[in-house]
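Review session, final week

We close the course with one last complete record, chosen because it touches almost every idea we covered. It is Coatomer subunit gamma, a protein from Spirodela intermedia with 835 residues. Go through it on your own first, then we will talk.
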Amino acid sequence: MAQPLVKKDDDRDDEEEYSPFLGIEKGSVLQEARVFNDPQLDARRCSQVITKLLYLLNQGETFTKIEATEVFFSVTKLFQSKDSGLRRMVYLIIKELSPSADEVIIVTSSLMKDMNSKTDMYRANAIRVLSRIIDGTLLTQIERYLKQAIVDKNSVVASAALVSGVHLLETNPDIVKRWSNEVQEAVQSRAALVQFHALALLHQIRQNDRLAVSKLVTSLTRGNVRSPLAQCLLIRYTSQVIRESGTQTGERPFFDFLEASLRQKAEMVIFEAARLTPAITVLQLFLSSSKPVLRFAAVRTLNKVAMAHPLAVTNCNIDMESLISDQNRSIATLAITTLLKTGNESSVDRLMKQITNFMSDISDEFKIVVVEAIRSLCLKFPLKYRSLRGGFDFKKAIVDSIVLLIRDIPDAKESGLLHLCEFIEDCEFTYLSTQILHFIGNEGPKTSDPSKYIRYIYNRVILENATVRAAAVSTLAKFGALVAPHLILLRRCLYDIDDEVRDRATLYLDTLASGESEATNDQTDEDVKGFLFGSLGIPLNNLETSLQKYEVSKEPFDIASVPKEVKSQPLVEKKAAGKKPTGLGPPASKPTSAVDAYERLLSSIPEFSSFGKLFKSSAPVELTEAETEYSVNVVKHVYDGHVVLQYNCTNTIPEQLLENVTVLVDASEAEEFSEVAVWPLKSLPYDSPGQTFVAFEKPEGAVSAGKFSNLLKFIVKEVDPSTGEAEEEGVEDEYQLEEVEIVAADYMLKNERVDEYGLGPRDSLSEAVSAVINILGMHPCEVPHVPPLGVFIGNAKVLVRLAFGIDASKHVAMKLAVRSDDPSVSEAIHDIVNG
């Protein structure tokens, strides 16, 4: 009997989509792979199994050598099937398995047969697979077929051969460079993709020869490049030639070509030319386009231009204001931030009202962009300041902005503190709550009515976790020291369930009680304030280390025994002293030299101690994307005859412990460098940064350049979350990193010392300028843009650049930049001003 039809349940639309790969395991899929060996092949079944294998490989599943070999040999038997769909799946799985050299031979004959097949789909795919799995020896055998394929009449086959050439150029450049004539012929093809791929390959073949690239661009700009994709490439190459030549002589044809590209029919070509020129008028036309992609591209380009040249974009403001109501929130956000950079004070309120209408619809990433734009505008127009809401990074950006406004705008202090108090009422981030409480404790008691903040602080003692409660107790004590002591509230904290909270309450009650009993003693009052608001005078890291080494004995711990020398922190980029802070906490103190800190670190490693004096250390360069399993950046240390790569690694997975961490560096594209030493990292626990080093020798005094490929290798051990102990046995693993490039700029050291100073109240800027010149004893140059010059004792030439600013209260700020051949002279000039 037939089953009655069941009406579709509308509620199923709200259910999560079912994945056909849900719950599949490697073992079961390998068992299913035996179907490849059946005498009667089921093409549909085989395709399904290959699909599962590809899914496992793309999900990061690793196959052992034996498993991969068995699968590979089984797959090769599928070449006997005539099913075209199955054949395409076979090509894909062979590429993913990446067979070894001895296994490639087995499948080469089948692929070469397909490469000469009458079926174009077989030919194109066979070429793609062969280019990925063969080595140089086999490449010479099929080179003749690849060269024929490049000029093949079928565009799919020709494109496959050209793309294969792009991949092979990385491993076998000498062979691919012999294809220049065929690639040159393919550039003239009428097929759009063939012309695009041919131009890309031809440029890569000649990229190291600047003259050859210039001739290529010159010939093609005069010719007839039909493909819009190829035209976009040609525009980029033309712009590159103009930049590298460094002169305008004889380049008028290049500029004529770029201008002509602005009048092309293809919109992508017009945008590419406008993006590199940039042509504000053309981009302005795109703002009113009916296509969202063109509007987004135009407003994003204008946003970048506005960062450096805001006045050049002001003519587009009317068009961008119409984009604020765009249905695409990414376009609306970029339009808002661009207008905030180019707008005036009168437009701030209007723009802010429009922002509130769509803030809930955009991601936190765009919210951060909006808040940073608002912060810049508020500093530009101090009478305008606002705050918004979002996730951790976004909320931290908000808090940093409010703190900066409180410090720079006195009138915003009380309203800003109230905003922060309201903020911590509903803040789920412990870090932000503790930092805000610390800031309120320092600034709140200095306001006209400090008592209005007490309720918010005590709410944290009642409602929050132990860390926030402890911070709230410290904040209450700070209010008690400068205002009326809140001993009743602090006594209630004595019964807290957390040791840290009880200990802090006991300590602060005793300190405040001693201050009350000797209220007539000014020195005691100053001691209490110094204890609560002052610093320890010693680094906290040093104190922690000394406490860990202290052994309980009859003699109590003496805080005077803690060393006061600041230990170097190579992984942390410290701010220059005197600059305006951008977040919570007091302004940073004067840092030690980064080169000195790195030099002490490197000299402590025996393998590097003989390299001599460190010349320069670069800023950290990220080798991984944000929010990946392992965070790695590299610092390039340059010596006269060596280069040391310092890889700063962080493990972001709590359940893993990494051991024997090293970076395998491939210097095949850096011929003048030879690896001489590797310093591994023995252990890398969760969220604990560590360093591993690789040293290279280069010709002494030479400006050697090159590109290095990096592979992070380590042993992974699982960590028990309950006990925190790692397993005894681990598994070897690896993680691909981005490439590192040594360039000429790494051998150039910028010898300049820059700092900012407050000169106090002055009648005018001219008085401040005269006072500084008298202090320095230097000769000011009247020529615009030429700074004061002088000669220091020892016949050392000194160049000084000064910048002054004055606010409404006539307080003058000065930025002082000093250049000299002798760094000690630059420091001495700053000491003169600072003294």
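Two points worth writing down before the exam:
Confidence is low (pLDDT under 50) at residues 1-15, 384-390, 567-592.
The CA atoms of residues 371 and 449 lie 29 Å apart.
Good luck, everyone.
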